[in-house]
C-alpha cells in the first residue's frame, strides 16, 4: 500500500489541432502503395493481424496501380467507377443547394468519401444486402438506382417511394440490396449479421454487409454484432468508414486504446483489414477479397476504410466550430475522384478535356432528374404523399392505437 496515493485521473483524448491551428496529419502513418501483402482468402485470421494496423493502397502518388491488390478492374470498369463518383459528387452539390433553397429540410454529403460506397458496390452480386448508414448513397448510384427516386425521397413528394415516412436521404431499396437506413446508429450492424445468418440458415448464397461510421463503433450494438459474427462465422462483411469525424467528435474518442478501428476485430478472431478509402482500386480489391471469403464460408471480415469527411456532417452542422478550415487540404490520402482520374489519364484512357465534358454532361443529367423530381413536389410546394400513406406499409397488421389515430384523421 502506498502512503501517499496520488489522486486518480482519467484520460480524455484530444484532437491534434483546433480551429485556428495548423492542420497536421504527420502522426498518421501512410504506407507506400503496393507495400501490403495480399493473403489468400482462406488465410487464418490470426496470421494477418498486421493488416489491421497497416493501410492497403493501390494507387501511388504518380497515379500508377501497383502491388498485389492491383488488377481487379478493367479500364472500362474504372471509367464507370469514375463516372459514378463524379455523379455522386454532383448529386450531392445539387441536393445541398436544394436544402439551402428550402426544397428539403435536410441533406448529408459524401464529399471525399465517394470511393468507399461506389467501389464497394461493384464487388457485390445481385441479391446481396447492404445495411448502410446515411453516407453510402454511392451504393445506389453505382448500382443503377434511379436518381429521380432518390430525389423524390429527399423532397418527400407525391412520388417519394417511402411516402414521407423516412427522413430525407434515408433511402430503402430492397431490390437494389439497400436495406432501410435507420437514424438510430449501429442498429444496422447487428441486423446485417442476423441477415447473413438467416441467409445461411436458408441455404442461400447471398451475403450481407454491415456499415458503420468511426463514431458509431462506440455503440454497444457494434460489439454485439462482432460477437455473433465471430461465433457463428456469419457470411458478412463488416465495414467501418473512418472519416476522422463523428459530427464534432474526432475519431480518437471512439477508437480509444485499440490503435485502429480494424484492430477491434482482432480480439474476436475476425479477419481485419485497413484500406485507403480514397483509393477506388484498393477499396474494390479489398471488398472483393472480403466478399469471396464470405461466399466461401470462410467467415466475416472487418474492413476499416481510412478516409476524410471533407464537408460538414450534415446541413445542420458547421465544422469551423471544431476543426481548422484547411484540414481537408492537409489530408494525406488526397481526393478519390482526382486520384482515379489521374490514373486513367496516365493509362491513356482519359483526359482533362473529357473530364470537363463529362462533368458538364453529368450536371445536365442531374439537373434534368431534379426538374422531374420537382415536378412531383418539394418540401413546401406541389404534390405530397397522402396522409393515409403514413399509416400503411409499416405493420403487417395495424395496431389498435394507429387504427384509432387513422379513424380520427379521417383517412
Ligand atoms: C444511437 C445514436 N446516437 C447518436 C446519434 C446522433 N448522431 C447522428 S450522426 C452522429 C455521428 C456519427 O458519426 P460516425 O459514426 O463517425 O459517422 P459519419 O457521420 O462520420 O459518417 C451522431 C452522434 C444517433 N443518430 N443515433
Ligand atoms: Mg465519422
Automatic annotation (TrEMBL):
Keywords: Oxidoreductase, Thiamine pyrophosphate. It catalyses: N(6)-[(R)-lipoyl]-L-lysyl-[protein] + 3-methyl-2-oxobutanoate + H(+) = N(6)-[(R)-S(8)-2-methylpropanoyldihydrolipoyl]-L-lysyl-[protein] + CO2. Residues 7-45 form the 2-oxoisovalerate dehydrogenase E1 alpha subunit N-terminal domain. One of its GO terms (molecular function) is branched-chain 2-oxo acid dehydrogenase activity. Its cofactor is thiamine diphosphate. CDD domains: TPP_E1_PDC_ADC_BCADC. It is an enzyme of class 1 (oxidoreductase). InterPro entries: Alpha-ketoacid_DH_E1_comp (IPR050771), DH_E1 (IPR001017), Oxoisoval_DH_suAlpha_N_dom (IPR022593), THDP-binding (IPR029061). Residues 1-41 are annotated as: Disordered. Its EC number is 1.2.4.4. It holds the Pfam family OxoDH_E1alpha_N. Residues 84-380 form the Dehydrogenase E1 component domain. PANTHER family: 2-OXOISOVALERATE DEHYDROGENASE SUBUNIT ALPHA, MITOCHONDRIAL (PTHR43380:SF1). The branched-chain alpha-keto dehydrogenase complex catalyzes the overall conversion of alpha-keto acids to acyl-CoA and CO(2). It contains multiple copies of three enzymatic components: branched-chain alpha-keto acid decarboxylase (E1), lipoamide acyltransferase (E2) and lipoamide dehydrogenase (E3). Belongs to the BCKDHA family. This is 2-oxoisovalerate dehydrogenase subunit alpha. It comes from Aminobacter niigataensis.
Amino acid at each position: 500500500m502506498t502512503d501517499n496515493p496520488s489522486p486518480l485521473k482519467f484520460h480524455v483524448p484530444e484532437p491534434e489541432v483546433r480551429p485556428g491551428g495548423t492542420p497536421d496529419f504527420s502522426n498518421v502513418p501512410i504506407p507506400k502503395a503496393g507495400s501490403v501483402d495480399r493473403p489468400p482468402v482462406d488465410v487464418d485470421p490470426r496470421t494477418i493481424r498486421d493488416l489491421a494496423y497497416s493501410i492497403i493502397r493501390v494507387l501511388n502518388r504518380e497515379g500508377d496501380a501497383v502491388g498485389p491488390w492491383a488488377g481487379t478492374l478493367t479500364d472500362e470498369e474504372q471509367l464507370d467507377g469514375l463516372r459514378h463518383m463524379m455523379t455522386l459528387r454532383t448529386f450531392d452539390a445539387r441536393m445541398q443547394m436544394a436544402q439551402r433553397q428550402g426544397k428539403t429540410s435536410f441533406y448529408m454529403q459524401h464529399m471525399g468519401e465517394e470511393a468507399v460506397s461506389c467501389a464497394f458496390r461493384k464487388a457485390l452480386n445481385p441479391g446481396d444486402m447492404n445495411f448502410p448508414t446515411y453516407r453510402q448513397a454511392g451504393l445506389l448510384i453505382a448500382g443503377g438506382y434511379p436518381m429521380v427516386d432518390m430525389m423524390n425521397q429527399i423532397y418527400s413528394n407525391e412520388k417519394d417511394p417511402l411516402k414521407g415516412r423516412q427522413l430525407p436521404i434515408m433511402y430503402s431499396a430492397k431490390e437494389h440490396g439497400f436495406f432501410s437506413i435507420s437514424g438510430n446508429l449501429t442498429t444496422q450492424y447487428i441486423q446485417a449479421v442476423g441477415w447473413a445468418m438467416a441467409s445461411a440458415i436458408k441455404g442461400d448464397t447471398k451475403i450481407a454487409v454491415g456499415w458503420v461510421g468511426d463514431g458509431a463503433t462506440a455503440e454497444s450494438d457494434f460489439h454485439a454484432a462482432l460477437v455473433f459474427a465471430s461465433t457463428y462465422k456469419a457470411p458478412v462483411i463488416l465495414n467501418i468508414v473512418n472519416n476522422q469525424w463523428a459530427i464534432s467528435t474526432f475519431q480518437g474518442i471512439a477508437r480509444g486504446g485499440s490503435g485502429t478501428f480494424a484492430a477491434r476485430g482482432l480480439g474476436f478472431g475476425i479477419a481485419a483489414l485497413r484500406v485507403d478509402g480514397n483509393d477506388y482500386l484498393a477499396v474494390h480489391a479489398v471488398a472483393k477479397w472480403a466478399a469471396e471469403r464470405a461466399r466461401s464460408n470462410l467467415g466475416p471480415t472487418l474492413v476499416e476504410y481510412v478516409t476524410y469527411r471533407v464537408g460538414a456532417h450534415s446541413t445542420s452542422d458547421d465544422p469551423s466550430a471544431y476543426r481548422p478550415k484547411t484540414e481537408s487540404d492537409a489530408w494525406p490520402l488526397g481526393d478519390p475522384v482526382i486520384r482515379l482520374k489521374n490514373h486513367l489519364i496516365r493509362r491513356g484512357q482519359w483526359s482533362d478535356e473529357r473530364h470537363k465534358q463529362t462533368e458538364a454532361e453529368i450536371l445536365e443529367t442531374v439537373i434534368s432528374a431534379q426538374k422531374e423530381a420537382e415536378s412531383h413536389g418539394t418540401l413546401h410546394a406541389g404534390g405530397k404523399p397522402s396522409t393515409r400513406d403514413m399509416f400503411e406499409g409499416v405493420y403487417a397488421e395495424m395496431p389498435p392505437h394507429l387504427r384509432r389515430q387513422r379513424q380520427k384523421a379521417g383517412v
